[in-house]
């Protein structure tokens, strides 16, 4: 059995926020669970080519926007799943941080970080 608290983990700074990687590849579960903070007023162009990701909003608000421009409001109690390695923009509202529980399959190593740039989608 694995029992772990966020207070035991150093956050990973991923570009526009932090991620506490609660379960990683080393845990042998086959998936990763993270507590993710997206800082208010930020926009991140992201794509996961080797992982599928689902995010459940636990606090705050924002949007997820497809590469083609389709917009989805994210508020507490909303889940979105990137089931086709979708390139997307993750946008936190201007007035509050966005907090998510993120699940990745297959599992992350745990040290991955985004390289955010206006030139394209950050990938890992």
TrEMBL record:
Reactions listed under catalytic activity: (2S)-4-acetamido-2-aminobutanoate = L-ectoine + H2O
Pfam families linked: Ectoine_synth (PF06339)
Domain of life (superkingdom): Bacteria
Keyword Lyase: yes
Pathway it works in: Amine and polyamine biosynthesis; ectoine biosynthesis; L-ectoine from L-aspartate 4-semialdehyde: step 3/3
Keywords: Lyase
The EC number(s) this enzyme carries: 4.2.1.108
Enzyme class per UniProt: lyase
Family the entry assigns: Belongs to the ectoine synthase family.
Name under which the protein is recorded: L-ectoine synthase
Organism: Streptomyces lavenduligriseus
Lineage: Bacteria, Bacillati, Actinomycetota, Actinomycetes, Kitasatosporales
């Amino acid at each position: 059995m694995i029992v772990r608290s966020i207070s035991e983990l150093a956050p990973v700074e991923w570009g526009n926020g932090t991620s506490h990687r609660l379960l990683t590849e080393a845990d042998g579960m086959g998936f990763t669970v993270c507590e993710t903070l997206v800082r208010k007023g930020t926009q991140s162009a992201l794509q996961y080519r080797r992982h599928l990701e689902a995010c459940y909003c636990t606090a705050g608000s924002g949007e997820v926007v497809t590469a083609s421009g389709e917009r989805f409001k994210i508020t507490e109690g909303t889940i979105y799943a990137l089931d086709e390695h979708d390139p997307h923009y993750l946008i936190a509202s201007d007035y509050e941080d966005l907090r998510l529980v993120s699940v990745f399959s297959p599992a992350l190593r745990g040290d991955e970080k985004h390289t955010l740039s206006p030139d394209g989608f950050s990938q890992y």
